[in-house]
Amino acid sequence: xxxVKIFLIFxxxxxxxxxxxxxxxxxxxxxHLVWNKNLYQALAQRGHNITVIAADIDKKNENKNIHxxxxxxxxxxxxxxxxxxxxxxxxxxxFMTVIFAANYYKMSCDGFLKSDGFKTLLNYxxxxxxxxxIYDFTAGPCxxxxxxxxxxxxxxxxSPFSAPPNTFDLAGGHKKPAYVLHYGIADENDQLSYFKRxxxxxxxxxxxxxxxxxxxxxxxxxxxxxxxxxxxPYAGDLENMITLAxxxxxxxxxxxxxxxxxxxxxxxxxxxxxxxxxxxIKNFVESGKKGTIxxxxxxxxxxxxxxxxxxxxxxxxxxxxxxxxxIWKFESDIGLKLxxxxxxxxxxxxxxxxxxxxxxxxxxxxxxxxxxxxxxxGVPVVGIPFFxxxxxxxxxxxxxxxxxxxxxxxxxxxxxxxxxKEILENPKYTQNAQRRSKLFRxxxxxxLDRGIFWIEWMLRHKDDHSSIIPPSKKMSWFISNSYDIxxxxxxxxxxxxxxxxxxxxxxxxKNEIVVNVSLNAYYKNLWHAMQFMMTSVQxxxxxxxxxxxxxxxxxxxxxxxxxxxxxxCANILGNHALMLALAERGxxxxxxxxxxxxxxxxxxxxYIHAEKAYEIIANDPHGLNLLGGVNNxxxxxxxxxxRFGELGCRGIIGSIGFQTLLNYxxxxxxxxxIYDFTCGPCxxxxxxxxxxxxxxxxxxxxxxxxxxxxxxxxxxxxxVPHFALEYGNEMNLxxxxxxxxxxxxxxxxxxxxxxxxxxxxxRQYFPKSPDFGVIERQMRIAxxxxxFAYExxxxxxxxxxxxxxxxxxxxxxxxxxxxxxIESARKGTIxxxxxSNxxxxxxxxAHKLSFLxxxxxxxxxxxIWKxxxxxxxxxxxxxxxLITPWLDQNSILAHKNVVAFMTxxxxxxxxxxxxxxxxxxxxxxxxxxxxxxxxxVNSQIAIKLNYASISEETIKxxxKEILYNAKYARNxxxxxxxxxxxxxxxxxxxxxxxxWTIRHxxxxxxxxxxxxxxxxxxxNMFDMILYLIVILMLISYLLGRHCHxxxxxxxxxxxx
Length: 1056
Hints:
Blueprint: H1 2-14, E1 20-25, H2 30-45, E2 49-54, E3 66-70, H3 94-114, H4 116-122, E4 132-136, H5 145-149, E5 155-159, H6 167-171, H7 194-227, H8 235-239, E6 244-247, E7 263-265, H9 279-287, E8 291-296, H10 308-319, E9 324-329, E10 342-345, H11 350-355, E11 359-364, H12 368-376, E12 381-383, H13 390-400, E13 403-405, H14 413-425, H15 427-441, H16 447-460, H17 477-480, H18 483-506, H19 519-551, E14 560-564, H20 569-584, E15 589-593, E16 605-609, H21 613-619, H22 634-638, H23 640-653, H24 656-662, E17 672-676, H25 685-689, E18 695-699, H26 706-711, H27 733-762, H28 772-776, E19 779-784, E20 800-802, H29 816-824, E21 828-833, H30 845-856, E22 861-866, E23 881-884, H31 889-893, E24 898-903, H32 907-915, E25 920-922, H33 929-938, E26 942-944, H34 952-964, H35 966-980, H36 986-999, H37 1011-1014, H38 1016-1019, H39 1022-1055
Parallel strand pairs: 1-2, 1-4, 2-3, 4-5, 5-6, 6-7, 8-9, 8-11, 9-10, 11-12, 12-13, 14-15, 14-17, 15-16, 17-18, 18-19, 19-20, 21-22, 21-24, 22-23, 24-25, 25-26
Helix pairs in contact: 3-7, 10-14, 19-39, 20-36, 21-23, 23-27, 30-34
Pfam family, one: UDPGT
Family: Belongs to the UDP-glycosyltransferase family.
InterPro entries: UDP-glycosyltransferase, UDP_glucos_trans, UDP_glycos_trans_CS
């Protein structure tokens, strides 16, 4: 509750001017008005002026800031003598559903373009200023010609229709047909068989083809006739101008799927705080002896479309339940006698009725908005789906145990009676609905507040929002999914096989007997290869299923407890901030770590010191030379975290702290384990020892690529470089090929060397523990140190929570000596710190002297140098240089007179520099520092200084560039605004999700990615790709055999 209040205050003070906003609802549908209207009203209440063009308007609108332009598109929608009630889509193939929907959208577009409302908006002056367009993109770009007319204001896409198939084409990201069902397909089981996944993929492919090559071109032609702008861009290009997409989805109701930062889930945005019922409705709802059932078919399906026979069937059924009242949304005179327990009304406030505690069930068509409202208020549903997504929504409710599904075509008194008896008398439906309600409601902020925040975010950052756009938006699906790399591997493999056979053909024995290897042998070998690949596919599927079963461990309940076994010192900074925040909220936190914190900690925070960890790392004969990493290859550098982890694990075993924790009783109760998974699962045996409490992953190391392996995400090697590479997110084929190889090497090293090595060291202490890799995959959520302001944007599932900058606090007052030194500089002060792992004293004397001499050349600037000892190569320290063994980096960077930061570009230092808007000179040494700096250089907030070529001259040149070129400071301030402009502080978000995990320790499954159960082989459709390759090879084989046979016949004829 405190977080919500803070968020609302934040919203009130964050935006201070009224914007002119154009709202476009492209689909004639009352439900779309209901959803969008809630957004418009909230924005109007905050002072914005909203102009809305739509086929459905709010006739009761009394807000002077909202102006509706009625474009009656319904005049062109003609289904002949068929009503929507007759279009039961369970009899229509999903391929035809795509065509049906597109035809409806085209008829709608024709109606819009012919309407008086369209002409009214078209007659607005061309220089009329709209600051933003909110565009419901469900039904296509018909009305986006107004973007061109009004000089291209920023555009935010919205859709009440969940996340339509084209969402990720418009805002970036990928649809996942392996487990995200197309709206035209309904299946109660998320674990789709191979052929169901194939069918789903083909439907998505058909939808994409039909949209791009039939629907959008036809809309474009219609637009050109009506707008008559000579330079009007192509309709598809106009739609692609979307930056953000607000989609009506939530993991408790919809498929869990990965989303980039540009796609914002706002499922349930239309749900308002309920008002008390009044008058006849209140009396009727509350007079039901056992309760009341709401019956409504929504806004598109009207109950009065039913014939008299079906109307009577419902009435007869309701009469059989005299202890319950039935309130029925019926749009006209029913023409039949009603029993005393049935009341009809042409309009009902569905939200407020469902919120009443006396409402026990809901008979619904299964529309998404109705499904969400039932879920929000914990009301079980009898679903009677008709068309589009309704069947899918009901099937998901069936899978969640909150719904019973009926078919309108086979409905009868007995069928409906049995369904009502089941849902009213079997408590499991109400229990499951209430569990679903708790999951749906438990968010950091209300969906409407989230939607408002991001719309106003777009207004605040209309000129500098590019960093939130994922690179995949600019890439084709073929490249962004790395299919070109897969194809390259296949071609290379084919060439190697072919080349080997050709080489063998040329070889001769010593007796000059030619080895009889011909093309016939090649195709024979190819046939064997195909048979092997077919077997491999079958084995891979079975192996994938076995891995899946291994990973499905029962997780038992568990006060707060933390492992920190990542031996990067920097990790403790973020982790300690999190542990301190949890302790301050009253949780008892026990932390096992090589870096204990003893200053100013509450009594509820207790550290167990793994005191030997650093000693082993420092003294190991094969230890790590940090400066040696400067010349490492990417493959060698990829091993560094695992070598840290292995050495740290050895040190932990020899620590008194380890024995202390090991001696805790096995039945000691912990409510959660917070596990830093950066350097491997060394300590995960304790999870088993303490009876498998919920496991929460954290890392200060960005979003490590193996996060997706653990949490059920997807590889993004096509546009997210490995931490050891300095590539940007727009890589060419060679760079992407290299990136895939490094990622693959890292994955193999972690899975088959690093994890087994750490587990082998620990096995004697935890002999009965499952494999550590299996325990690791029990992680409920992962809190990762990333944000689009400084990291590459990539899609993640909802169980990966971005908390970049978690360690950043409000600055503390500086000690007097440092404050005076900073403020005494005439032009500003530069902070120089190499972080916590690499120490300045590790540099050779020549490098140290180069820095001091370079600093002395800038007398108008002061330099604060974090130097850990008093052993400097000279006693002649320049007057403008202050040497200190420790400093409060965060508070110094926050000071307005600090103008630049010289850093290794470790991620925590990078986040603090970006947060406070300070340009950087980066000197990367090892691990992720290269990637961090490359992103900053690409964003023009930093320049790179190569450690190997450091001299007085190179340092001076770097300082001149960063201090005298204003673009770095200007861009740093822009990035700072982007980073700080969040709905809540990163630390608050992290605390929320940890406590969420504890609250939902038994009901967390909806947030889990389906990839965890499906396995990466199926989730990435590699089985389909492999089968396709087999088919192509079969064709190649048959063609080769055919050609070879034809050649033999031709040669025989020649001989004869």
